[in-house]
Amino acid sequence: MKAVYCTAYGSPEVLKMVDLPKPTPQANELLIRIHATAVNSGDVRIRKADPWAVRLFFGFSKPKKPILGGVFSGEVVEIGTAVTRFKVGDAVFGSTGMSFGAYAEFKAIKETAALSLKPESVSHTEAAIIPFGAMTALHFIRKAGIQPGQKVLIYGASGAVGSAAVQLAKSFGAEVTAVCSASNADLMKQIGADSVINYQKEKLSVNNTQYDLIYEAVNKLSFSQSIKHLKKGGVLILGAAGLPQMLRAGFARMSGRKVLTGVIKESAEGMNLIKDLIDDGKYQPVLDRTYTLNQIASAHAYVDLGHKKGNVGIQVTAD
Ligand SMILES: NC(=O)c1ccc[n+]([C@@H]2O[C@H](COP(=O)([O-])OP(=O)(O)OC[C@H]3O[C@@H](n4cnc5c(N)ncnc54)[C@H](OP(=O)(O)O)[C@@H]3O)[C@@H](O)[C@H]2O)c1
Average of pLDDT values for 207-222? Predict the structure, then answer.
């Protein structure tokens, strides 16, 4: 099968196409023929070893798991002897989690992983781009105990995680304010934001609005600004926090606000919930650009710029 190896930490040129044997599924695994994957901020962070601590977890001099790619949409082509949830021919989409390996034509994955049947209304590329943002935003929004009618601010709303957070907060009945640059304002309205703030020009709150929940998705808003606009008893999600922000989280708890950080957990239950929202027309894929697997270095170079609108899809086979 064709796959893409991350041969070293560095610029997009470290990504090289290789030929490998097709994986064989274990008893509890499915073999997926991958039709599409995506280039997410998570892949880019590993490719660049950013932050440096990536090397402690993923390999000191180069990634120990050289095939990146954490999401996929495709077809089940083989099943292990103990598999019960899926059958050959099922179209599925999901996340490979920390095993990565989706920059390839095939991937063997446990049937209990974070995957679900693919909604029929979306293409494989549209399905593949969904799990990264959706699983991340769902984890934090549920942990925050979001309630209908709450005022929610999403900062960095036009990225993969932000655009998922806007849609999920709306589906939980919240009143959502999206913060992004002017060029993304129409997109935010289209995915359901009640109001939009241009971070380049406007203040964070009109008439001193205080929010019940602030989801800081891109680590660009200062901690003091976040707290200033958060109600007492409110929740601040620092979804992209580094160590300094995590350390300050303790201080915020003392000031009567709760701060959520950390690494997310994905699940099949979460993926099924996202599938239902898509089927009900309450969640849509936000696809910026699509590249082919051969063009993956160009896709990484685009994501490196830090201003993608939602997600970047990778077509592995024709959709
Ligand atoms: N905790 C976890 O387990 C976990 C899981 C997944 C992801 N993450 C983290 O979450 C973060 C977001 O991921 P992502 O995939 O959503 O990123 P992304 O898609 O690459 O974010 C791109 C977006 O960021 C916006 N942006 C850039 N500068 C901004 C600024 N100064 N103010 C407001 N928005 C700005 C851009 O909008 P404009 O073009 O309009 O500026 C663009 O739409 C990453 O740091 C990732 O590592 C954490």
Answer: 92
